[in-house]
Amino acid sequence: MVFVPEDRIEQIMKSKRCFNTLQILRALAFLGIFFFHTTLLPDVFSRWSITVFLMLSGFLNAVHGCDKDIDCNPGASWKYAQRKIGRIYPLHLVMLVIAFVLYAYSVKDAIRDVLWERLPIAIGKLASNALLISDWGPKSGWWYNIFSEYNIVSWYLSLSLLLFFLTPLFLRIMHRFYGSEKAKAFMLPRVLLISALIYALTIVINIMLVNHYKDSSMLYIYESPLSRVGDYLIAMQAGYFYGQKGKKQKYQHMALPVIIVVMALAVSIFLIYVGIPRNNVIPADYSWIMNSGFYFTIPSVILIYHLVTLEGINALKLNDSRTIDMITKPLLVIASLSQYAFLIHVPAISLMHGILRRIGDVNIWLWSLISFVLTVLLSVVVDRCKKR
């Protein structure tokens, strides 16, 4: 990557806090979201990406917290969440202002006569966005005017803040449930049972949301904490098990995790294919399933767990071959920038679309390329500012 120094790339690859295989998965998830927002990819790719992002967070938080006695009182939980969000919160505020300005400019003619009527709503919406509570409120009716986002992807940051606040409590419960010597002896069956119960409950919650909100249920099942906490919790079960047992697990045949990874990828690709509307596989009445908090859960958690087990396999080391190196280094850089690029990319895409539209017809490929380069450049600038 021409924008990132070589020593920074090496630092990324050698980081003990990161699994390179998971970083590559993170990069692919970001690309899925980015090119969905430029309309190059259908929406099912963004559904897969959000599931992967959520499950990576849950898995890694459990891996790094499974052997720690983390205080779960409200004050300590808030500090834990602040540490997780604090690094990108200033960028969130900057992008919120930029997104608001772009939105206001785009609708200035339409709202000129009702400006003073709309002003209190705009202030309320800005407040819910700035406080990162926009994802916690109703997703339909009048209140959605307040609990929605100017930078449309920041709902994920709002969701993450809530999940991070609850993570110390989740870890404390898992310590109680898995911590005894007897529990550790039968840990895998317990993890599988608890994960199955969470998965079943998530399906029930999604069905209830669809039945209650009907045509307006999409945002509830796609963004609502009630729907998405299941992905996070199931990934935490896998991460906790890996932290306690998986690190010591030795495969007699290293081909086994490779086969499992390939199968999990194949199932994910199949679900993506099934979820593309033009393929006409899922009937219209059941298309909500693709947006739900359970559609990609099982293959994603299997993929994440077994990608981690591949980290130490000599045959798959990421710097063993020049060809692999050429592919993985850019992906690792994208992954390291993704926390910034995620917040930057939609305003960047909107800005470039507005500029290109003034010039003439918007070529989707050119628009996507320029927007991507701009997003990466701005993310590098933010990353370098953070390093100072």
Shape: globular
Order of helices and strands: HHHHHHHHHHHHHHHH
Radius of gyration: 21 Å
What's the main sheet like?
A: none
Note poorly predicted spans: 8-16
Total number of domains: 1
Explain this structure:
- With 388 residues, the chain is mainly alpha-helical.
- It has one domain (44-319).
- The chain has helices at 6-14, 20-37, 43-65, 74-86, 89-106, 108-111, 115-130, 154-178, 181-185, 187-213, 218-223, 225-244, 255-275, 297-309, 322-359, 364-387.
- The chain is globular.
- The protein starts with 5 loop residues before the first helix and ends with a helix.
- Residues 8-16 have low confidence and may be disordered.
- Keywords: Acyltransferase, Membrane, Transferase, Transmembrane, Transmembrane helix.
Question: Briefly, what is this?
Answer:
The chain is an all-alpha fold. It is 72% helix and 0% strand.
Give the topology.
Layout: H1 6-14, H2 20-37, H3 43-65, H4 74-86, H5 89-106, H6 108-111, H7 115-130, H8 154-178, H9 181-185, H10 187-213, H11 218-223, H12 225-244, H13 255-275, H14 297-309, H15 322-359, H16 364-387
Helix pairs in contact: 2-3, 2-15, 3-8, 3-12, 3-14, 4-8, 5-15, 8-12, 10-12, 13-14, 15-16
